[in-house]
Amino acid sequence: MTLDQLRIFVAVAERGHMTKAAELLGISQSAASAAIRSLEQQHGVQLFNRVGRNIELAQTGRRFLPEAKAVLERAAAAHDVLEHVSQTITGSLSIAASQTIASYWLPRRLASFHEAYPAVRLSVTIGNTRQVETNVLDGTADFGLVEGRTESDILRRAKVDVDRLMLVVAHSHPEIAEVSRGHPDIRELRWIIREGGSGTREVLEDLARREGISFADLRIFLVLPSNEAVRQAVEAGAGATIISELVVERAVAEGSLRSVPIDLPKRDFAVITHRDRQANLAQMALKAHLGAKAGETVRG
């Protein structure tokens, strides 16, 4: 029995799918199948029931799963002890980040982290807040970076920065009616927004809720999958949007966009991690480098 066999067994057990587990581990489906078959043959047991193209834990597999996970956790702890002794932080980190953070906030920080910890390999995937949350929950990512709300109660969340939001329109956009000073009539605007699950879209949803307006009653003209697409559509005069200052500050400074005065709350940029997964030294180092605060919370 090897640690690699245990890692493959746990991945297959948690995903209920040989191919998905193989993709997560970066190996071929045939290699994953061979490892499971070898483990079963070595000990004369059946760990999985194979029903058609589906796979599910057999009774022996269900009993073995917590033991296998405990062995892997102990192996990871032993590795961390050796890292502490050598004072050399190594390993790989998989990061899932929402678009605003990944495109405008994170790159410089990862570059400086690499200067400090050159033996740590980094990979980043980009999605909206909901996709990042899913990646952290299913173990595809070691941790995530989001600006929107998260829903799961098994995620730990730690603030790393604050983001300022702006309502912007094209420079040539007509003057906007106000219901009161500093409160534009959002029902009269034609909106360009991000897709569902985006933290940027949540800001407009929250604003409509505070104003006592149904989101369905807003004039949604375009729903686009990226901040850059939203910015370019607004610059072209297609409508208004609420978006991070990081995305539009240059366009506002150059005059292709103008900011509309409105009272919008700031939002947090946050690291999210799985409550039940122990962080290794590389993860702790990156979290500290990004500025995570000590007052960590578990939130839904």
TrEMBL record:
It holds the Pfam family HTH_1. The keyword DNA-binding applies. Gene3D superfamilies: 3.40.190.290, Winged helix-like DNA-binding domain superfamily/Winged helix DNA-binding domain. This is LysR family transcriptional regulator. Transmembrane segments: none annotated. Keywords: DNA-binding, Transcription, Transcription regulation. The keyword Transcription applies. Belongs to the LysR transcriptional regulatory family. One of its GO terms (molecular function) is transcription cis-regulatory region binding. PANTHER family: HTH-TYPE TRANSCRIPTIONAL REGULATOR, HTH-TYPE TRANSCRIPTIONAL REGULATOR CYSL. Residues 1-58 form the HTH lysR-type domain. InterPro entries: LysR_HTH_N (IPR000847), LysR_subst-bd (IPR005119), WH-like_DNA-bd_sf (IPR036388), WH_DNA-bd_sf (IPR036390).
